[in-house]
Fold:
Amino acid sequence: MKRRAFLAAPLALAAARASGSVTYPAVTADKTIVFPHDHGSHPDFRTEWWYVTALLRDAAGADLGVQVTFFRNRPGIAEGSRSRFAPKQLLFAHAAIALPERGRLVVDQRAAREGFGLAEAAQGMTDVRIGDWSLVRDDRGYVTRIPAREFSLELTFAQAQAPLLQGGDGVSRKGPSQAQASYYYSVPQLMARGTLTQGGRAREVTGVAWLDHEWSSEYLAADARGWDWTGVNLDDGAALMAFRIRDRGGATYWAGGALRDASGRVTVFGPGDVGFTTLRTWRSPRTGIDYPVAVRVQAGAFDATLDPLFDDQELDARASVGTVYWEGAVTARRDGRTVGRGYLELTGYGEPLRL
Structure:
């Protein structure tokens, strides 16, 4: 791990020092997301990620969470070079399992430049790999294989619903300027199944998962500090995504999201429709950062409380994408009963987010 972290840090630093002479394509409202092509990589854009979260249960009835994310970055370095060693595309990945009996996340990370058959993000279809870590889409859904240091995952995610285009037909605004946007779709209500091995113990697990795929060329707005995001698979088959970007003072800078109800009807939310209210905070004993780990989420007529599977789900990704944040499995409750399961992501509560 020390060697991987040593290699990853210069890669992240190189990305941060990208040449200003590179022209990245803009996100525009006239773009139509086309499948299956847009399941794949978009290497001209600055940043892209495929993000899978799952709430799972083993045969003994124990609940746990799983998160797998692959990032692609075009740093704008040595693009005119013919050398195969030129870092024209960088790939990062991290995976975490949330085990209540452990009381904190078990995490591993990878980083590499694309090429040499060792790391790639294919165009035209989801096929992202760093060494023996992979996330691949097939006709039925997705498959991930993560042989990490302290655990291994072999999971399939069968697609039960069509992709949910976020924002206006897949263009998701992240600020008041039209340039502050990403192409973004989700695949909710994935039926997850597979094996988690940890501590010499293999567990067969099943549950429900969520996938996000997002790509953009814009950095977070200069006035923004970080974001709160949630993706929740509701028990009746509905799916909610809601986010807010916070300004330097902690107020809402921008917000949005979408709800697809059980009948398939989609409601898109704008900045005035979404609210995150802190109900309880937790302070990390490692970083001293306070996170709002229990929140009330309101999005249009939707109103529910998100409670963490357990509090300590802080993820230290400074060796790969350069930040520390909270990313945890949560249960959605309304009127004292469980109505769904998902993940909550909280960034920028320490230093302002810099990806």
Residues 1-20 have pLDDT under 50 and may be disordered.
